[in-house]
Design brief:
Helix content: 40-55%
Largest sheet: 7 strands, mixed
Order of helices and strands: HEHEHEHEEHEHEHEHEHEHHHEEEE
Distance between the termini: 76 Å
Structural class: alpha/beta
Shape: globular
Length: 385
Amino acid sequence: MKIWMIPVLLLVLVTAWGPARAESDQRTIVFGQSAALTGPARALGIGMRLGLHAAFSEVNREGGVHGRLLHLESLDDRYEPEAAIANTRTLIEQNKVFALIGAVGTPTSKSAQPVATEAGVPYIAPFTGAEFLRDAKKRPNVVNVRASYYQETEEMVVRLHEDLGIDRISIFYQNDSFGQAGLNGLRRAVNRHGLNLIEEVYYTRNTEAVKIALLDLRQANAEAVVIVGAYKPAATMIRWARRLNFNPYFINISFIGSAALAKALGPDGTGVYVTQVVPFPRDTTLPIVAQYQKALKEIDTNSKPSFVSLEGYLAGRIAIEGLRLAGPDPTRESFLHALTQAGDIDLGGFRLRYGVDDNQGSDRVYLTRIDKRGRFQSVNKMSAP
């Protein structure tokens, strides 16, 4: 053997043996995550990963699930579909993960989910409300936790129209499958209420090129702007609107990343609304939130509770529940079957239910608003400033 070949051979051996041990080790179950850990959407991927780690560390401290510890492998896709595909293949083929969990985004999920489906690998709790992931017959390996974007946009229109009497509604959306999912949901909702969108404007993913879109919104004299996008371009657009003295009601879909949005907006965030799909992360009267906060402190004393990391924690908890129900020797098939047949699942006050043709656990949509201190308030209705 030539000397130059030795490092290459060692690399091949590490790649081949390392994941195989993780898969065959009767004490460990490996989950894989492809998410934005860098780039403009990084707060979302980092938050989801943090919540997943909190849930897995919590159960591991108690001895795991049926004596088996849970491990998370996370790869950065920068919120780009091509990278998500490559990561998904790596996690399945090289890392030999039991399931994929906590993916971030519609365009990345739209690209990566078919890879997982073809391989028969469970695709658990993606951070997106896109409708295509809710077709249980075509995607039997997908398990959603959160409510859909259709349900969020329906709640937005109800609150705007019934609470405030607003009918001049517009949308600012990301020009990709995520933005299109929100746009389709909003069109559907306004049609149900006999309304029309007065303006539809967009920006390009992973950019903050929003000025032309903002000027179009102001020209249309929109009373309310529904935002279907990431926190950085959304914050840029809202800040510019304030400077132009253009102050419609701004309401964001849950994907926005609430904590990152509030921080980016600063004082310009007062009165901005966000629909949420998980409970208020500081409401410890709910047992699941108290458990989440305790688990979070165990792994990172400096982390503050957030909607995103709470969603990651809930994703971890539903994975744990599926493994518990599947028994001591789970397969991917028995894991999915166990969740489908479980009936009502109560995660400390956050209730989910799956069925043969229903792969979405929760239908709850919550309304929140940023106050003058830059903190989120839980509200039942929209109100004038």
